[in-house]
Amino acid sequence: MHLTRASAFQRKLLISYELFLNLTNDFEFAGWGSISHLTLVPEDIHQGDVEMTSFREQQVLGQFTASALAANDILGGVFYTLPSVVALAGVYSPISLFVAALTLFLWRPVMEEMASALPISGAPYTYLLNVSTKSVALFGAALLLLDFSATAVVSAATATSYLAGEVSLPFPVYVGAVLVFVLFTVVSLSGLRESARVATGVLAMHAVVMIMLIVASVIAWGRGGMAQFRSNWSLGHVGLSPAAIARQVFNGVCIGMLGLTGFECAPSYTSKMKKNRYPKVLRNLHLSALVLTSGVMLLVMALLPLDVVESGNNILSLLAQKVAGRWLRIMVVVDAVVVLCAGVLTGILSACELLVKLSCDLILPRVFLATVPATGAPYVAIISFIAFSALVYASTGANLTVISQMFAMVWLAVMALFPVSLLLLRFSRPRLPRASQCSLFVVAGAISVTVTVTAGNVAIDPTIAGWFALYLIILLVLFYMSQNKVTMLRWVYWAYDQLPWLHRQQFTKGWGDSLIRHMRSLRRQEVCLLVKSDEIDNLFNMILYVRRNEETSHLKIVHFHSGDIPSEMEANARSKYIVLHFFLDEAFPEITVDLMFVEGQFDPKNLAALAHHLKIPRSLMFMSSPGQNFRYSVAELGTRIISI
């Protein structure tokens, strides 16, 4: 039944919102709401069963296959991290890399607590989306997209550089990097996806090559003794004071963080892991980074002259040549190209997943969901990301050093989002159940390390902060414009309203109606609030969240019941709804609010069935934070947490 009011009040309402003097204001009022009852039909229930079965079938990754997805990035980072660290830390590079890897002991408990509270994919963007506002989450999304872009660019450029160090290429390195981008654009558009099996295969090849290199190096070190290491150590000390040595080690730590990139990828597919595997995945990634980067760097310093190490980019291929000959050097180069190219594909596919998620959350236009009919690949997302990455690479003059240093800053910023998300979680969602809880000293330590190392990177090269800020601001502006499309159109409508002479011109007189149609089209997607009680203050706060974060003109408030609607909600539904509507009409008349009672238990299956019935994706269904006794996880529900 539809609710009405006195026509006098309607006129008063519309007059109070008369923002446009020469054009109509009618489009600001979305209409009256309604109260309805719904019983889910068998077709909806079946669809709910299908979606829940699909969700459970996606949780197939064990600790080793899940580790492989991110380990290719972490262990592949050894190819582009070592030259950068050696250039700053010299003979102290093994110490710097070891200290850098130790810092992950601060992040592991933080990331474990966040994942136990919000076991959802797409982190840290999805973490911020559930513990703060959409604008804050967009800041995290911008950092993530910049991180994925830097991953793809650095991997492509380093792969070409490694190849150029072994064979004479008929074109510059930057042309080779562009060709790698073109190749993997085609691969991505063909519909190929990075699977755990492929990632495990690439990781297995990389592990075999690295083990062969390490074993051969240890044998060569045992035969040659400590002479080369002592020589390098003596040369590295020449003319350096203790303060200068400490500075070199610190600079090496700042750039050495680059060798840990990929650790932030594990939370992005948490929901696809089997139960209780996530902490083991983080442990595997951490220990492998701790051993490989610093261990290999130690072998390099023990077997190669310092001047050779400092002058060469293909450090590992030089080490392979030294300890085993040409055959192992070729294997290392092939391994480097394959692993780094896998990093390019990882960057593209991770970015596409993020762009699709942003489109589903109504931040980016729906065109980003467009796919190639034959393959299902999101071609708009792929091409947009490749174009942005190419712009980043070209704007730095194809300078791999600049991009690598910026990469380290981006990675630090992304890692800072995890402790920040945890602080927001404890403050704004304290009731959300979680299996583990780390000390606030650990959280503060992770933030302190981030700030300190970021400051160190800026001190090494202040221009890096400029590049980082430039790209971040560009992305934030684009995201803001996309999220606030209706707001910007209203400004255009206002400007058109202020120029009455345009209303009389043949060419421009229809612009007002066209703008109204476009604004209504953008706001037609419904969103849903899932409520347990009829407390008006709680409902009002939740609707305020929708008003501030979603561009919609239609909101459904849904209450699940088992045939026994709470007495006050049933008896006073009409009166309380009218009171609530009075506030809504005065505050934001552009939203139509419906109240719906759904018969059934509040569980993931019925929620998926409701989403199918209403044609509202669960990503646009919002609820308050569940308590300790709630049976289901946020990942199963697929909803967004928007209040305490």
Automatic annotation (TrEMBL):
GO CC term (a single one): plasma membrane
An example Gene Ontology molecular-function term: amino acid transmembrane transporter activity
Originating species: Suillus discolor
Record keywords: Membrane, Transmembrane, Transmembrane helix
Source organism superkingdom: Eukaryota
Membrane spanning stretches: 86-107, 136-159, 171-190, 202-224, 244-263, 284-306, 326-356, 368-394, 406-427, 439-458, 464-481
Cross-referenced Pfam families: AA_permease_2
Keyword Transmembrane helix among UniProt keywords: yes
Localization (cell): Membrane
Protein name: Amino acid permease-domain-containing protein
InterPro entries linked: AA/rel_permease1
The keyword Membrane is assigned to this record: yes
Main localization category: membrane
Record membrane topology: Multi-pass membrane protein
